[in-house]
């Protein structure tokens, strides 16, 4: 009986540690993406738009997302990650056709989805029950 109790306690501690590590990584990813998307949003709101700078920023966002997505895919639902990728492709599409007014709502949707992913994977009472 004592051995089983020790094993159970060890497993619970291990689960909590892994959860803390994944939460911290998710927060890091979301904050970095949020920062890059806000820079893109600010650039696209300027009256004098620099098309090359906007293209560079969306390429940077896409590159960073691809790096983070590989690790996030281990523990986050793939549907959630695909939603973010879909939004990034939509933003990229509007940039390619130079429809800068439509970029802002797509960036806001992408930020909302990222925040939802972060909140959904946090260890709290609401997510347990």
Q: Element order, helices and strands?
A: HHHHH
So what's the overall shape?
Answer: elongated
Measured as a percent range, the helix fraction is over 70%
Q: Quote the beta fraction.
A: under 5%
**Biggest sheet details:** none
What's the β-strand tally?
0
Structural class computed from helices and strand pairing: mainly alpha
- Contiguous low-pLDDT stretches (5 residues minimum) are none
> Cα-atom Rg, whole angstroms?
19 Å
Q: In whole angstroms, how far apart are the ends?
A: 29 Å
Number of discrete helical segments: 5
Average pLDDT over all residues: 89
What tags apply to this protein structure?
129 residues; mainly alpha
Can you describe what's shown?
With 129 residues, the protein is mainly α. It is 83% helix and 0% strand. It is built from five helices and no strands. The chain has helices at 2-45, 51-72, 78-96, 103-120, 125-128. The relative contact order is 0.14.
What's the layout of helices and strands?
Layout: H1 2-45, H2 51-72, H3 78-96, H4 103-120, H5 125-128
Provide a brief overview of the structure.
With 129 residues, the chain is mainly alpha-helical.
